[in-house]
Structure formats: structure tokens, C-alpha cells
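Sample pair:
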Amino acid sequence: MKAFVAEFRAFAMKGNVIDLAVAVVIGAAFGKIVSSLVDNIITPFIGLLLRGIDFSGLSYTVGDATLTYGAFIQSIIDFIIVAFVIFMVVKALNRAQKALEGEKEAVAGKSVEPSEEVKLLREIRDSLKR
């Protein structure tokens, strides 16, 4: 039993499992942000453009069964909106990351002129080698 607990503890404390847990929590929080953006800002704006068209009420009845295909169509539209918003956010983040990497490369690429003290110490070193 102790070996089983030790093995489980080693598994649970691996870096990948911890990283995955953090990613899930951050992903859930990011999902709430995107859902809020879509539900509270994007969807009402699109509703204004489409003059309040809502497909969720469309249905077809066959006998006792009701096929609510409008809810399916509305879900597809909602998915497309969410996917587009996520695409735009990721695109903006990638652009910002590339800009930061470009700044880092520019800073790293600049040659820094040595100070006067360093130059003097190099001259002394070179003269001592002779």
C-alpha cells in the first residue's frame, strides 16, 4: 500500500501534471472572459446588425416529437462567433509576442561600447603580455 501511495505521489507531483492543472484553471478563467465578451458585447452588437434575428425558436413537430433545429442553428452561430473572437485574441497576442521578441533581439544585437576603465585594463593586459 505504501508503494502505491508513493507511486501516486510521484505521478501527481510530476511537472507535467502540475502544468496541466494550471493550464486547465487558466483556460477555464480565460473561457469565462471570452464567454463574457461574446455574450455581453459581441452578440448584442451582431443582434443589432441582424435586427434581433434569433433562430432558437425554430422547430418542426412530427407527431409527439419536436425537432428544435433552431437551437442547433443558434449554437452553430454562437460557436462561429466565439471561434472568431478567440482567433482575433490569439492573433493579437501572437503579434504582441513577436513585437516583444523583436525588441529583445534588437537590444541583444546592439554592441555595447566598453567603458574607459575596461579599455584601460585591456591596454594594461596587452602591454603585460609583451
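The chain has four helices and two strands.
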